[in-house]
């Protein structure tokens, strides 16, 4: 019998790999995944601004290549179904509270990291919706495209970098 070569997970393959795994599990769901680079400008810019500080703590995958499935691009029922699939079929790796208070006073969000099918999934919920971000592999020892060690605060608290937003557009 001929052996089928295992293909390394990539951002581009994630929708097909996860859809196949979902189908094998018997779940009726066809999630719509979009890379951050393919999101509408408003959503893409917000994710790139705040998301960079989030993702650098978990992956060295460039932010524009991270896949996303959110209530902004999918129905709430589909996102809930995807969360249900993760809970039933993935390994829950970590839970942490992201503190954005230096950027957005009083704003923090709980994030969960799940792993399945060679991919990592970051699930975050806030006042605007539910977001699932995914990338190939897990968390490398060194992240952020540098040789700096992962910077983490004690006991599951992670602090997002401080951003200065200029609402007026000029500075």
Describe this structure in words.
- The longest helix has 15 residues, at 41-55.
- The protein has one domain (14-141, 150-159).
- Strand 5 (119-126) and strand 6 (129-136) form a beta hairpin.
- Mean pLDDT is 75; it is low at 141-171.
- With 171 residues, it is an alpha+beta fold.
- It is built from three helices and seven strands.
Index terms:
171 residues; alpha+beta; seven-stranded mixed beta sheet; globular
**What structural class do the secondary elements suggest?**
alpha+beta
Order of helices and strands: HEHEHEEEEE
Profile the largest sheet. Answer: 7 strands, mixed
* Helicity range: 10-25%
Number of helices: 3
Mean of all residue-level pLDDT scores: 75
- Provide the spatial order of strands within the biggest beta sheet: 1-2-6-5-4-3-7
Sum this structure up briefly:
It contains three helices and seven strands. The protein is of the alpha+beta class. It starts with 13 loop residues before the first helix and ends in a 12-residue tail after the last strand.
Topology:
Layout: H1 14-25, E1 34-35, H2 41-55, E2 67-70, H3 76-89, E3 91-99, E4 108-116, E5 119-126, E6 129-136, E7 157-159
Parallel strand pairs: 3-7
Antiparallel strand pairs: 1-2, 2-6, 3-4, 4-5, 5-6
